[in-house]
């Protein structure tokens, strides 16, 4: 797959007040992704845009390398046109 993709990534669990948004911002910068990250009543939402491999790496890192105090219970990814 080539080009750019945009994905809405929803992260549920203990992900607020544990440094999760700065963690995601650092990952996005490292992978050269554009987008945004925020909190809502359901957890953290991330909108990431960039090369497909970079977006996939972000999702994997969110699942596997979250901050120590975070407890990631669920990660869902939805393509955005």
Describe the structure in your own words.
With 81 residues, the protein is α+β, with helices and mostly antiparallel strands. The chain has one domain (5-79): Alpha-Beta Plaits. The protein has helices at 20-31, 52-64, and strands at residues 5-14, 34-40, 43-50, 71-79. A four-stranded antiparallel sheet has the order 2-3-1-4, with helices on one face. A hairpin with a 2-residue loop joins strand 2 and strand 3. Helix 1 packs antiparallel against helix 2 (52-64). The protein starts with a strand and ends with a strand. 22% of the residues are buried.
What would CATH call the architecture?
2-Layer Sandwich
Give the rounded overall mean pLDDT. 95
Number of discrete domains? 1
DSSP strand content? 35-45%
Distance between the termini: 16 Å
Following the backbone from N to C, one meets helices and strands in this order, namely EHEEHE
CATH hierarchy, class: Alpha Beta
Query: How would you sum up the global shape?
Result: globular
**CA-based gyration radius:** 12 Å
- Major sheet characteristics: 4 strands, antiparallel
| Main β-sheet, spatial strand arrangement | 2-3-1-4
The helix fraction, in percent, is 25-40%
